[in-house]
Amino acid sequence: MATAANAAATPTTNGEVASGDNWTVTDLGGMYEVTLDLDRPLEIRSDAPTLLVDGKAVGLATESPSGRTLTALTDDASVLTAKRVTAGWFSDAGTTSVKPADVDPAPEPEDIDDAPQGTPDPSVPGEYSYTKALYSFGNQAIELAGISGIRGEVEGKVYLPDMDEAAPVVLFLHGRHTSCNGAGSNPARWPCLPTQTNIPSYAGYDGAAEALASHGYAVISIGANAINANDNQLALDYGAQARGQLILDTLSIFEDANEGKSTTLHDAQTDADVTLADALAGTADLPAAALDDDIVELTPADLVGKLDFSRIGLMGHSRGGEGVTSAATLNAGLDDPFDIVSILPLAPVDFGRMTTPNIPTMLLLPYCDGDVSSQQGQHMNDDSRYAFDDDVLRTDVWVMGANHNFFNTVWTPSKYSLSTSDDWSGTNATSARSTDSVCGTTGAAVDTTIRLTDDEQYDTGTTLMAGWFRLTVGGEDEFLPMFDGSGAKVDSIKDFDIRVSATQPASARSDIATFTTAGAVRTYGTATATLCASMSGRAVPQVLPYCSTTLASAQLPHWTSVRFGGDVPASPMTRMQWTNGTGEIRVSVPRSARDASAHEFLTLKASPDESVAYGAGTDLTVTLVDGTGATSTTAVSALNPNALVRLPQSTQNPTTLGKIVLHEVRLPLESVDIDLTDVREVRIKAAVGLGDSVSGGVYLTDLAFASSALGTATATTEVTVNTAPVRVEEGNGPDEALVPVVLSKPATKPVTAYVSVIGGTTATAKAGMQMAKVVFAPGQTCTTVPVATYGDAAASSAATTTYTVSVTNTSNAVMGTDAFAPLVVREDDGVTAGTPAPAYGVQGDPCAELSATVGTLTPGVEKVGPGETVTVTGSGFRAAESVAFTLGGVPVGSFVAAGDGTVTAALVVPQDAALGTAELTALAAGSGRTATGTVSVLAPTSTTLSLAPELPGILEPVTLTAAVEGVEVAGEVTFLDGETVLGTADVVEGVATLEVADGFAAGEHAITATFGETATAASSSSQVVSFLLAKGLSTIALALGTSDSVYGTPVTGVVAVGGSTTGTVTLTYGSTSQRLTLVGGSATVALPAGLTPGSYTVSATFDGTAKVAASGTVSADVTIAKRATAAAATAPTSVTVGGKVSGTVTLSGGIAGTKPSGKVTVQVKKGTGAWSTATTATLTSKGTASYSFTAPTSTATLSVRAVYAGDARYAASTSSATAVSVVKKVTKTSVSAASKAKLRAKISATVAVTPAASTAGASVKVYTKQQGGSWKLVTTATLGANGKATVSVSGTAVGTLQIKAVYGGSGTLSASTGTDAVTITK
User: Fold this and answer.
1) Residue 764: left if φ>0, alpha if ψ -120 to 50, beta else—which one?
2) For 741-751, what is each residue's pLDDT tens digit?
3) N or C: which end of the chain has fewer CB within 10 A?
């Protein structure tokens, strides 16, 4: 495979068309592969390597695993005549149109006059002591994201303040530096060999870490040497995602530790599980321990509750700088993101042009950077500041005298002895870099250089890092003037040239004109205003004109091309030029921004353009105009004397120095004497600057009213933008491949991203260069970008050509974990060497291919043995793409999908395939579609059966033996007679035995042995062993004791069998069968006493035994009659008229267990009259029944009897009659009067007759009798409804007066009398 870092002569058989001592050029069929062999491994730098052919850069280079070979792909045909191939670095690429023979030195930088004073120095140690400790989970403890399964170290240094409360967390990540130093060749690159030292780059930031720890911040500095050893070779994005994910993984480990949870990681190097306690202990042998005598060991308990993860800061140096931006974007894609509130990329690369939302960002950029010489990290803030609707401070800090390395003591020769150098000067004291008049360190450069000493640079880094994190993580606002662009300096760095430009948070800013879009500017006089972007030399046509056409990439941090997305428009801004002092531009202040009274200053970013001479500068005036026309004018040079002066340039390195860097210009509004509530216009006019030139040019951006503020960091989940691998056929002519661009979820705002494909620029390229802006409407989640491809009918030496696809420069979304992917073009006309790549088929809709779910593979059979063939089908693939199948993880062949996307594969199971349930997988070469299924791979077995004895008799004990042969025969054998299971037995050493102790019964037998299927072995059955066992004959006789019987009386008899003395006889009568056991050839027959009356045929059949056959059937008849009963009834001797006649009926004659059942009829007659039914009653289980009926309403003599009709078992019967007399009801009469009364006084007496309900309305006679007299009728009274009457009587003589009431009775009631007595007095 050829890999395009960007994406004739007669070739040799392998396509080679040019070569030298250590290089070759190979024709790949439209593209050329340039390969350079190095005499030593490539230097470990953060920059990206390139190849130069005859001094011309032809493309970014891919580094081989050994680091000794560089390969670049180009479509530049000039390489066919190459004379020399050398290695270069991406940041050094490009030339200037004019190389100065001499340049004037830049003027001494000046401080800003009105810069705030009194800002405290954050490098001064604080009040807290702190503990320093190391931890290491091992060198291969975690899988690195995006680096082909490589495992890396989880190791670092912890700075823990000694205080009670939890400390905010700041994490440091070093950059790309040598991982292993020492003797020995290490093809694997990582881990280091025993003869090598693992360079502890993470231990080089003690100054900043200790400054922060002394003020109550916990710092974790982590190692990333495994990434450094593998990123160029194996990571599409050069390791950015790996670094970002390592940061997040480390935060997770320590967050768990803070909560008392221990992390355990597996170190593959030692094949050991390492706990947090293990990682913290035994660190004395780590190389970092030798650099710090104050290292102690911590325990997990020391970390519990000590870390505050509610505000997290990240610093990344070099490629670590891109690592912290990657961590920020990866974090934004999490459902539960960490609270990252600050990032500080230090001298970063920006290969991926990532944008980061919602996080205050400080870029620290060293002017004399000899590694990332283009200071491409400038893009980070340029790209992010308007990409999101966020509210955070973004700050650019340029340290003019700093190089790349000396912010880290482990990268500084005077501080550490292994693998260190001055990245600018190198090791050659007479080189152009070392003697450079601006950044050099030897010779005459000592008198002119702007370089800081290594200690000065390190201390500067300490101050800036400590101050930034104390501001952004700790909320210590007193440090804001260091970073808000106001020019404040602190004691430790007051003498150094440090230049700060800031973009204030949206809430503290009212934009007037960003100068990044057209239409805001009006020109006057000789002024022109051109909206521009990027630097010249872009491979893809640009919408806007270039901002620079004469300077090299390293001189243009705002527009320098980057590793990925090099053709994406960079830092659009407005270029103002003029030829005399009349040149002026004017900008109207939007209505929303006219009231500037709440803001502190007007801010503008500006730089001299490339036409301004080195050592000189230009100047402008800025005029504010209010609604009355009043004006206030100030010169830019009075506000920031350095802003419009060209930065230092040298003759030794003219393509690296003399950079264009925008500076912030701030006009304090308190000094403006106009109406700040109604500012209408801003005028920017040419002025005479340094060098007295009346012509000039500047770059302008970010015009706004603003106030100094940090803004508000927020940890929110963002939409992510991704792409996916694209694989297409070369074809025979022009075509296009579609690159998918996908959002993780629908967005609520438009999302913008740029897709770049680093292809070729000529018609012979396999894939063309592409850069396209993609805009997602709210709700849209997938779209595609076409990339031109070019095919032919010729074979080539490479099976595929690979180009890098990236999705960068996002707005309203962040780059996701799949923002980088390959575009692979397959050589479909054959290869001149090696093996062709599998067919990619016809590309479908990439969005549909990405959204497809995992398919299903269907095997034709569920079980298959090694060496056998199983046919598997699947669907949903591309037409004509190759689909690779595996069985249990082992490749078993590739098959081409049909035109309808189905694939049928005849897979031969390997002889050594793992046995058991095996997963089937299919992976499509083009679409990447996957499908899965399962099939059972079972080892074949064979089973053989033998019997002992071979010809058994009936019921003779038999031993069954099954011999099982095969690879996996541990299991169970089931022995069967036909379909009847005789038993099971385990296979022991290939044999299973079953003892049939009772032998086999007479009849036909078919004996088999079946070895049961196991998880790894197939079932097998033995041959059938058949035999016939015959029985003897039998006779039978039946005799019953009687043929007639009565219910309740048992019937007995005997059955006899000839031919067998044992066995059973089945006796049947009616619906009942019972089995009799023979004793001596006979058995007693006993029909139950409770047999229901009726006629029965009793049958008997000998059932046979194992050796004697069953007999015929004999029978005899018997009749069972009903059993007689006797009924008896009880009744009362008398009842009153209308009363109840109640009694009991008893049926006798029943036998135990069964009594007569059913109903009895109770009959009654009057005198000699006829019998009639009075009532019926149901017999209980005891043969009795209770009855009751109502007597007549007149007196009479009754006869009562009970009649039983019988039931199925018992006969009918009638009881004898019982006499019952029906008599009148008894009444009771009473008289109630006063006990005493006066002579001849009226006496009220109450007469009551009961029962009242029956006597109401009847007459009662009342009599009185004087003492010594006779009864005299006084009155006749009628009883009321209550059976009572009141009468009046009187006494005629002194003495006792008796009162009597007489009730005469009725037809149903008897007569009754009642009396009372009253004493009569005078």
Assistant:
1) alpha
2) 999 999 999 99
3) C
